[in-house]
Design brief:
Helix content: 40-55%
CATH superfamily: NAD(P)-binding Rossmann-like Domain
Strand content: 15-25%
Radius of gyration: 18 Å
CATH topology: Rossmann fold
Shape: globular
Number of domains: 1
């Protein structure tokens, strides 16, 4: 396939989002990078322009708020922009017993991981359908395939992303708009620190490699991509053993 047009990438100030923006520019896209931190977005866009010669602009938006989501959409409409690609990467995690998480932490996860992603997918997806062309890449997680103690709310939000995105892909089949769901495993990024990890995550892959493989999978026509053979094997294995056993095993591993 040929990459062209404009890609809107959310959560672009670090980690997977930063890599999606950089690598999609390297493959031929102009970039709109959206996140909360203007200094990081400006540095990213300066780097993209220097490295690739592609157009790169940033939009400051707190997508954990309804105002932030609507401000981003209104800005696109004012400029007459319908992205050719939407990468819903912005997300928030939490590691620890669910009852110990503060209400604001859980609310932010739900608003960012579920509400913002849903609104942007449907509102921008509607505009893509009217044009007859576009692609939505939603970032779920390998953890979306089973309950995950000590990641309870986060895993549930990613299960929503997986289910919603796969259903939306079927609904939009034949419209000219593709929906692809990316399911990373453990990734070495700022995300884990914000989520509450105090030590390095074993077997974590780099954000650069995860995004490279994910974009390659998108190019090949995949509707859902689980990054890494161990993660894919784990998802497959879990389908053949009792769900309660898998849940308990995750609880024991997460407590170590």
């Amino acid at each position: 396939m040929r990459w062209r047009g404009t890609a809107l990438v959310t959560g672009a100030s670090s980690g997977l989002g930063e890599e999606f923006a950089r690598q999609m520019a390297q493959r031929g896209c102009d970039i709109i990078a959206a996140a909360r931190r203007a200094d990081r977005l400006q540095a990213l866009c300066d780097r993209i322009r220097a490295e690739t010669g592609r157009k790169a602009v940033w939009r400051v938006a707190d997508l954990a708020t309804e105002e932030g989501v609507q401000t981003l959409l209104a800005g696109l409409d004012r400029e007459g922009i319908v992205p050719d690609y939407l990468v819903n990467n912005a997300g928030r995690g939490y590691y620890g017993a669910a009852v110990n998480a503060s209400a604001p932490t859980n609310q932010q996860m739900l608003r960012l991981n579920v509400e913002a992603l849903t609104t942007l997918s449907l509102e921008i997806g509607k505009r893509m359908v009217q044009r007859g062309q576009g692609a939505i890449i939603n970032v779920a997680s390998a953890i979306a395939y089973q309950p995950a103690p000590y990641f309870a709310v986060y895993a549930a939000t990613k299960a929503f992303v997986l289910s919603f995105s796969e259903a939306l892909a079927a609904e939009l089949s034949g419209s000219g708009v593709r929906v692809c769901t990316i399911c990373p495993g453990a990734t070495d990024s700022e995300f884990s620190k914000v989520a509450g990890f105090r030590t390095a995550i074993p077997f974590a892959t780099s954000a650069r490699d995860c995004v490279r493989r994910s974009l390659n999978a998108f190019e090949s026509g995949s509707l859902t991509y689980i990054d890494g053979p161990l993660n894919a094997a784990g998802v497959l294995f879990a389908r053949f053993i009792p769900r309660a056993f898998v849940t308990r095993a995750i609880a024991m591993a997460a407590q170590k």
